[in-house]
Amino acid sequence: MKFKTDFLIIGSGISGLSLALYLSKLVPKVKLLLITKESLHESSTYHAQGGIACVWNNNDSFEKHVQDTLIAGDGLCNETVVRNIINKAPDRINDLIDLGINFTRNENGEYDLGKEGGHSERRILHVNDQTGQSVEQILIEHVKKLNNIEIRENWCAVNLYVKNLKCHGAYILEQDSEEIHNIAAKATILATGGAGKIYLYTTNPDIISGDGIAMAYRAGAMISNLEFYQFHPTCLYHPYAKSFLITEAMRGEGAILKDIRGNEFMENYHPQKDLAPRDIVSRAIDAELKKSGDDYVYLDIASYRDSTFIKDHYPGIYEKCLEFNIDITKELIPIVPAAHYCCGGVVAGIDGSTEIKNLFVIGEAACTGFHGSNRLASNSLLEGLVSAYECASYFSKHISELKIKDFPEWEPGNAVPSSEAVVITQNWDEIRTLMQNFVGIVRSDMRLKRALKRMNIFSEEIDYYYWNYKVEKNLVELRNLSMVAELLIRCALSRKESRGTHFNQNHPHKLELARNSYIKRPW
Ligand code: FAD
Ligand code: SIN
After folding, report:
1. In terms of domains, do 9 and 91 share one?
2. Is the pTM of this model over 0.85?
3. Which terminal residue of the chain has fewer beta carbons within 10 Å of its beta carbon, N or C?
């Protein structure tokens, strides 16, 4: 089927949903179509725990938040972008408060500002340990009330339609009918999140397979800094826990990392010890595990905070761990690092603008220069929110210049239903294991080169499937994750140094001149 709309928004995390709200407010009478791969709430946003960073009290200052962000980003942040986003944070947080978010307050009735790794002040606004869930629920509630929006769940974007570096819309797979629709729009906005599923162990939900980044790359957009994949240090280690996150805020409130013999180790790695930036803590845990041969280390909150404090501050984590028979008020929590956040992505301004006309990218899929080579904790929800507002403001000034243009219907080719689903699952598993083992927290030239060789074989097989079999969600995701994995490896191979979240043992030092890596499809 053919659809026409003013704005096609792909994704329903914080950036996609808040864009829908801001567009409805700032650009009168526009028609919006928001599509999302599964149910509306499913996104990384929904799973966010720690909160949103924002300068909120008089002890803190924009300058301190800027400096903390620049230090974490290790030479690769765009300082203008950093200042811009951080200065705009209080206005955007007030928008959330106006929508009805109840950030947790302390006994004095003031917002309870949390602290996380790399932050020099308490500045994390949160809703206990379920910030993302609250944000997502409030945004959904308000988006559903809009009368200018059509929402389609279980619709999966397959490809953009771009001609002469102008985007006219996208091909979208309706999963129930298995039909591929042609959606023409004045502007298409990718709010598709990161790519955690390229790794075997990730904190991300299953839908996060780098689709937006891969689609934009295929369309000719510039991609940057993919080698900087951030690993979160503390993910619950349990065979059935499916990478459940234990928020960094817990270390902000005194929890300490210990090896399985009970020894603290972070003082051997960084003066900020357990509250060092994420890349350092993740590498320290990785080094401890490699040295000891153990499978996990512990996070100990029980020895430092009483039971009431723990249950009040971390109700979600407390309940979840109890499901696995771990009482965090009494016991140590087994944890390992897991892939968490894509610091690179599609090169975009903070308003989402890209090199391709009428294609905008916001949120985790974008690389705006805010995070550099390592994202500061709780800066991501903030970026999504600010970019959504800036994107809507851009359209409020330029809507009259945008036009809808038809484009050809999807060509099914000689696609037949696949009776070989096992090949797809096998490729998924192999790629994710390869990325975990060869392109993980500590890399080497040899492992990266071998990984690239293997990825070339996978790409060939996956392309064959894509062009010869019926397009289905699993295959779309596999194609995208293999593309992002390959691009990530190529970015990593081009970096002859270690910086931020990228550590290569053959090039352990930082080069004097900091540079971003860029990658673009050769035509
Ligand atoms: P997402 O929230 O990931 O949403 C992406 C959307 O795109 C989804 O709706 C998905 O269905 C849709 N989509 C993807 N591909 C397609 C496709 N092909 N077709 C249709 N739809 C598609 N950051 C913080 O700042 N603070 C925190 O406390 C915090 N905690 C976190 C905890 C966890 C467990 C995780 C995983 C991340 C956390 N982060 C945190 C990071 C932050 O949550 C994400 O970076 C942020 O939510 C990304 O928002 P987004 O809108 O860009 O994408
Ligand atoms: C956390 O709560 O530890 C995650 C915060 C983030 O990813 O910014």
Report:
1. yes
2. yes
3. C
